Amino acid sequence: MNLLLMLAHSIAEYDDVRMFSDAGYDVFSIGAYADPVHPGDDKRPPLPDAPRHPELAALVPDQMRAKEYLPDDLIDWADVIICHHYLREWVMPQWGRIKHKRVVWRTCGQSDFALEDEMKRLRREGLVIVRYSPAEGWFFRESGHWAGCDATIRFGKYPTDYRPWVGDGIWVGNVTQNMAGRGEWVGRSYWERATADLPTRMAGPGSEQMGGCGTLPYEELLRYLRRTRVYLYTGTHPAPYTLGLIEALMSGTPVVSIGRHDWMGPDALFEADKIAPIAALSPEDAARHLRGLLGDEALARYVGQEGRDRALELFDVATVTEDWVRLLGGVPSPDTAVGMLA
Question: DSSP character for 232?
């Protein structure tokens, strides 16, 4: 089965190209991994075992334009088209050209009332909707703006990528999505209140503007997470949870999460406080938890293991792959999805 990916995030693209390829699907992604051996973004490593399609890559020299109007030959090649949240730009204008294929809207916590309403019609015409969090259902159903759901499938991570937590970095960490630039969208004032008198070391884009270490290569990022004594998750509006939270939990890093009442978005749309082992009641409560974990390695290790166990339950790529195979079918053999991920 041929999967065409139109994704909006190079890190999620790395995860999905890797997962679907390991499951036995033939994958082509219009994005950083159009050539998986030479990715166009260095935040994640190459994928030398993924399928290579130079003939398809040659069809999409301008990737953004190609997503907005897929070449006919690429549509012909695809059995399934999986799209992230830019449906107004990438799906709706060319729906008539692609709806004879199996088109999947893979939500990533970026929907809104108007988009849900617009997608109701497309779902009646065959659009498949895969949610990434049950919180999307809790919130949008109650609001009366709900396009439906064919499956809820989490993001998938490979547990073996994350070596044992060490915790010798006595700081509060966070892998920011440019907190310096995006401010309240990623909880800047909450961070500043909760960590006002604590040692901090952020990573990620723009973090150097707040005393952090900047964007790190993947192996250095994994080392940073292993060393971080405690991680303060401040949320990203409007996503119920993010890849950064998953990676911290997978690393065994103790996580304290912002509470749903302090998050910028609607309470019912937030799920991180259900996933993280500790959810703070306020910035002051977060500071109390952070201080305790900074000073007690044994407690930090216990909380980190609790978070990792939860992450393995929800985000282990083997389970996530099984969910996708159940939805899509079409892999060469029943053993492929589990055997290649063992």
Answer: E
Q: Output the CATH code of domain 2-156+316-339.
A: 3.40.50.11930
Write down the pLDDT at residue 52: 97
| CB distance 33 to 45 below 8 Å | no
Measured on CA atoms in the order 116, 118, 123, 127, is the torsion positive or negative? negative
Which residues, other chains included, contact 214 with Cβ-Cβ below 8 Å and sequence gap of 6+? 203, 204, 205, 207, 208
Nearest Cα neighbor of 290 from 203, 211, 201 is 201
- Edge to edge, the sheet with strand 169-175 lists 200-203, 169-175, 228-233, 255-257, 278-279
Mean pLDDT estimate for the chain:
95
Residues of the chain with CATH 3.40.50.2000: 159-314
Tokens of 187: 């909880």
Q: Residue 4 in contact with residue 80, Cβ under 8 Å?
A: yes
At the topology level, CATH places domain 159-314 in Rossmann fold (3.40.50)
pTM, two decimal places: 0.94
How far apart CA 8 and CA 17 sit, in angstroms, is: 13
Distance CA 57, CA 34 (A): 6
CB atoms within 10 A of CB 219: 10
Rounded to the nearest 5 percent, the helix, strand and coil shares of the chain are: 45, 15, 40
For the chain (length 342 residues), average pLDDT per consecutive 10?
96 97 98 98 96 98 97 98 95 98 95 96 97 96 96 97 97 95 96 98 95 95 98 96 97 98 95 97 98 98 98 98 96 49 42
